[in-house]
Amino acid sequence: MASSSSSIFTGVKFSPILAPLNSRDSRRSGFIKDSRSKVRFNPAAHHRVRVEAQSLIPYNGLWAKQTTNKGRWKRNIVLGERVTQPSLSQGRSFCLTCRKTQPGIRRRSLPGAFVDASSFPLSRKSSSLGKPSQIVRATVGPDEPHAAGTAWPDGIVEERQDVELLPPEIDAAELEAFLGCELPSHPKLHRGQLKNGLRYLILPNKVPPNRFEAHMEVHVGSVDEEDDEQGIAHMIEHVAFLGSKKREKLLGTGARSNAYTDFHHTVFHIHSPTHTKDSEDDLFPSVLDALNEIAFHPKFLSSRVEKERRAILSELQMMNTIEYRVDCQLLQHLHSENKLGKRFPIGLEEQIKKWDVDKIRKFHERWYFPANATLYIVGDIDNIPRIVHNIEAVFGKTGLDNEATPTSSTPGAFGAMANFLVPKLPAGLGGTFSQERTNTADQSKIIKRERHAIRPPVEHNWSLPGTSVDLKPPQIFKHELLQNFAINMFCKIPVSKVQTFGDLRNVLMKRIFLSALHFRINTRYKSSNPPFTSVELDHSDSGREGCTVTTLTVTAEPKNWQNAVKVAVQEVRRLKEFGVTKGELTRYMDALLKDSEHLAAMIDNVSSVDNLDFIMESDALGHTVMDQTQGHETLVAVAGTVTLEEVNTVGAKVLEFVSDFGKPTAPLPAAIVACVPTKMHGEGVDESDFNITPSEILDSVKSGLLAPIEAEPELEVPKELISQSQLQELTLQRNPCFVPIPGSGVTKLHDKETGITQLRLSNGIPVNFKISQTESRAGVMRLIVGGGRAAETSDSKGAVVVGVRTLSEGGRVELFCVNHLINCSLESTEEFIAMEFRFTLRDNGMQAAFQLLHMVLEHSVWLEDAFDRARQLYLSYYRSIPKSLERATAHKLMTAMLNGDERFIEPTPKSLQSLNLESVKDAVMSHFVGENMEVSIVGDFSEEEIERCVLDYLGTVKASHDSAKPLGSEPIVFRQPTDGLQFQQVFVKDTDERACAYIAGPAPNRWGFTVDGDDLFQSVSKHSVAHDGLLKSEDQLLDGSDRELQKKLRSHPLFFGISMGLLAEIINSRLFTTVRDSLGLTYDVSFELNLFDRLNLGWYVISVTSTPGKVFKAVDACKSVLRGLHSNQIAPRELDRAKRTLLMRHEAELKSNAYWLNLLAHLQASSVPRKELSCIKELTSLYEAASIEDIYVAYNQLKVDEDSLYSCIGIAGAQAGEDVTALSEEEEPEDSFSGVLPVGRGSSMTTRPTT
Q1: Which end of the chain has fewer CB atoms at under 10 Å, N or C?
Q2: Active-site residue set
Q3: Please, are residues 485 and 564 in contact by the beta-carbon 8 Å criterion?
Q4: What keywords tag this UniProt record (predicted)?
Q5: Does residue 932 sit in the same domain as residue 1007?
Q6: What is the maximum alpha-carbon separation in the chain?
Q7: Does 804 share its domain with 902?
Q8: Are 785 and 927 contacting, i.e. CB atoms less than 8 angstroms apart?
């Protein structure tokens, strides 16, 4: 797995240019599943805020997933990929077309020291605008079927920077020649083309080892559909993928597969081992053969078509959340002049119901052929010629049987847009096309094939200066399920390909310029309650839309919307008019170069899928593909030529559509779209109607244009948070040292096998660290504090979550973090408060991270206005529950199951009003006691470096034993069945019909403790009862060593954690096979376990989406599967697949610092006494030793009887049974942040994962 980047600029989002940073932002960003799209029944886990920055150079990893996943604008309408992709070994595959991206659900982001990652997506890609006097349109016609107008049209010349602005010592002619030089291409990327036109790209990549990615991208999507074919590309994706027998044969090999559809592409992909288990059989031919069948030779059986028709109709209703509808509204107005605003990949319900097999087959024949496809292979490859031979052997004859090959003199199906993707090939590399046309018949076939390959034109009305087009009035989308006000101002221009040093230089300058906006607003409005919830500026390329879009997004409480818009426009004007300061230029340039250097050093740790996604997106946009080292070297080369004047000149052009709004010379916004609720909360509790007009929107923009502005003052950014003299003084006062670890008698415990070292400081803080070089010169650190929300008392409900949010907004450390490449997050869960740091070891980055931790522990800042904002935030969360079908349903279930315990749901208005600054401060800081804290660090440091930092910055923290309080004293109980609340329903009024359901019940915690106070290990030996013949025969097959392993597993502290994890995999597979595939009652169903560590309880939950007409049957089917493990016994192959899935995941993650950080958690925590080193060392052998009988031991601890099982069905529609308009003061919301208006247009661009 790729390691995570300590990136630089919060929310600065650019399209990938140099190397993979976060491919989720590109081709597959739509597949990152927001935590709010599935109820995790872990509400406090979402109470996270962070201060961070994002790298200029694309990269990916666990950190990137977390930071980009929430609230980031993803223009990726891909129906598609499930985030946690089920493995082929489970026989599951979700249509990427259908898996919703949840691009726009945003947490409320307020200025604070630890800034929510959802704020300020500023983008990496940009272009310099020309100033033609006429309206310009980019048309994708016969020569450009691959993507929609991604380049500047003829007659528009990108402005080159005025060389007169450069310092006199730089020769202008030499500089111009240098900037005109082409960027270097990735040295390991191999491109080729078969005689039938199939293009292929191959990249060797060793992470993860012994695995590879194979993606077949067919250049056909929803914009290719005729008026009566809307959704048919997505239908073919489903039928072809799930109907493939050759794909099914990969089951059990450890391969995973999936598919998705977007506007212009249908992608089938397989992630596979290079060889089969326990043999050296090469899996490349089998994987390629499966892709060949899926893409070019599918069997359109009526039974499969009908099965997928049901699945897609269910998927359509599942996707149709208010977030999806907002996305569709944004796209419709942004692209009102072309099909992108009308052809959403999911399709139209009335048409999906009608198509027969013949119509589906004809669309496939028209578009699915090798010359209209590209094959990408990235992975652990050591013999490229052998892979090329496999490609030729599998695909070489496809498309040549009855068809003539197009000549190279005429653009093929891939068209002119393919020229940058695959240059003309010399003879011998990919073969050349014959220039001769053999006869008239062959020629007619060629013409016919080419004509069918032509993509319908996609035209864009560009937002260019000086055009005579009238401004489109602001559009207003009003809906009762919206909670907050949001407005989006769009500017749309052609993509500027990044192919020369000059292109890269422009990107760098825009990045520096736009990065300043977030930190300015954060600083300027930090000490007051701002009128906005968030102000975000996004400037990015979209390969799916074929354009570069700049978006100003403002979200606010409805009552504050006018001031919010005014302030946002005012700040954009300030930046445009006065530019960045010299200090800002120096600060951000330095940080970008450090970040670039850091990522270049991690070149060998980028995963294959991230490299592949980056290449696919870069090719679609026409950017030169470079690796991380080339990216850093080229960035350094252009950085020295950048001047302050040029940065401000280039950056100002990006903002003119806002800052110069209304001027004749300004670019016209492509669209202005406001998404607003129908009701608003005033100062009191009651709601009133919310009304807004287009003229009022324009007036609020104009008020920002007229507001006075002044230049930004230079800010002093501290180089350190604690001086050496202060540190020396503290050291003399507190005399930090390491003391013996309890039970060991030694001050340092080091395990050679794992590399884990355990220490304990004299102030009581335990420390775990592991030296790891897998992520070069990078490190991660986590502070875990026991307590969390479970420690809240009846008179302090909500105090911990509100307090953590308040603490996160104290201090002014954002720019300190930027200077040192630190990412920091602070969150509260049910049982812990956690603070996590990502840092680079360059330029004292680790010392800076420790200083920041020291500051929080010793000098935490608590501000009254920060408390007010935090309390208002949770009040907004609470009010938003009735507007979300999923949250309202989950809320009602959790309230019933846990007897209304507010510690596991959002605090009510009554509880929030009873809090004050002192009470929340006390609720949080009372947990920060030496022995109740644990710090773990993983990274590429030396033993001397880490021990010095630990002593200096953690050892000098005051030992606060005197403030210790008993934590979590109030018991947690599941409601008794006599109350009759096992089954409930929720009805939400909505214009469209949807349904969902949750089924939950008690489970033990990870270590075998139950809510009743039982220790299951005391009785685990009594559970070894054979079920019947199957388990008896299994027991007979065990030899002596296997019996010893099984006995060891039963007595191991992690027995229930291991067996429960395997059980969850098995139940998930059965739910999919039965409820989704066989019965057709749902598109998405899942089983999840929430096993606590400190609390003596856990629970399971089944989440299912359906239609109002099927949801009751779906719930009954889920219950039947859950309770049917005794009557339909677990087969050995099911257990083997579950083991393989979890072990493969474990092995892949071992190269990630973040994963090791998770493994180290609670190693010395007194509140988790059973966690020990063997839980890490023996993890693999414990999984391997698990038997079917062990799984039944775990299963028997789940309470699945009617009295213990709770379920709640939620139905939305115009005829819903009753309107959920308010919650009583005794009810509380669940964990998501849907109350904050989602902003984005991503979920409608792609389908969800096929499986």
Answers
A1: N
A2: 237, 308
A3: yes
A4: Hydrolase, Metalloprotease, Protease, Zinc
A5: no
A6: 95
A7: yes
A8: yes
Q: With 60 as the cut, is the pLDDT of residue 1026 above it?
A: no
- Kindly state the average pLDDT of the residues 484-489: 97
In a domain, 1219, yes or no: no
Q: What is the pLDDT of residues 1092-1138, one digit of tens each?
A: 999 999 999 999 999 999 999 999 999 999 999 999 999 999 999 99
Is the CB of residue 1173 less than 8 Å from the CB of residue 756?
Answer: yes
In this structure, which amino acid lies at residue 818?
V
- Amino acid sitting at position 245: K
Task: Say if residue 522 is in the same domain as residue 379.
Answer: no
CB-side neighbour CA atoms (13 Å) of 563: 9
Nearest to 1132 by CA among 1064, 1197, 1055, 1186: 1186
DSSP string, 732-747: HHH---B-PPTTT-SS
Q: What's the rounded mean pLDDT across residues 1134-1160? A: 92
The type of residue at 1221 is T
Same domain, 696 and 739: no
Is 768 in contact with 936 (CB distance < 8 Å)? yes
Q: For residues 1119 and 997, is the Cβ–Cβ distance under 8 A?
A: no
Give the amino acid at 161. Q
Radius of gyration, alpha carbons of the chain = 29
Residue found by looking up tokens 């208005």 in the block: 909
Say how far apart CA 1025 and CA 1028 lie, in whole Å.
9
- Fill in the amino acid letter for 425: L
Residue 401: pLDDT above 90? Answer: no
DSSP bridge pairs for 1000: 1101, 1206
What tens digit of pLDDT does each residue of 773-831 get?
A: 988 899 999 999 999 999 999 889 999 999 999 998 876 688 888 888 899 999 999 99
Q: Is 282 helix (H, G, I), strand (E, B) or coil?
A: strand
What is the average per-residue pLDDT within 473-497? 95
Angle at 766 between CA 765 and CA 768, to 5 degrees: 140
Q: How far is CA 264 from the centre of its chain?
A: 22
CB 534 within 8 A of CB 555: yes
Per-residue pLDDT, 429: 30
| N- to C-terminal Cα separation, the chain | 22
Q: Could you say which of 396, 412, 445 is where a domain stops?
A: 396
Let me know whether 929 and 1073 are in one domain: no
The reply to whether 404 falls in a domain is no
Give, in degrees to the nearest 5, the angle at Cα 267 between 261 and 270.
135
pLDDT at 835: 96
Residues 690 and 760 in one domain: no
Residue 789 has a pLDDT of 94
Q: Where do runs of H (alpha helix) occur along 383-456? A: 384-395, 440-453
**Residues of the domain holding 597:** 475-706
**Residues 490/669, Cβ–Cβ less than 8 Å:** yes
Cβ partners under 8 Å of residue 402, min gap 6: none
Residue 1182 — φ and ψ, nearest 5°?
Answer: -70, -45
Q: Is 27's pLDDT higher than 60?
A: no
Q: Is residue 648 part of a domain?
A: yes
Rounded Cα–Cα distance for residues 660 and 253 (Å): 59
CATH number of the CATH domain containing 609: 3.30.830.10
Strands (E), 165-232: 190-193, 199-204, 211-218
Q: At 717, is the pLDDT very low, low, confident or very high (cuts 50, 70, 90)? A: confident
Which distant-in-sequence residues (6+ apart) come within 8 Å of 869 by Cβ? 110, 529, 805, 809
Specify whether 588 is located in the same domain as 668.
yes
Block residue for tokens 């240019």: 17
Residue 104 has which token pair? 């726009």
What is the DSSP code string of 351-381?
A: HHTT--HHHHHHHHHHH-SGGGEEEEEEES-
* Domain identity same for 692 and 764: no
173: Cβ–Cβ under 8 A, 6 or more apart, which residues? Answer: none
Point out which residues pair with 785 in neighbouring strands.
833, 933
List pLDDT tens digits, range 54-87.
Answer: 333 332 222 222 223 323 233 333 444 432 333 3
Q: Kindly report the average pLDDT of the chain as a whole number.
A: 80
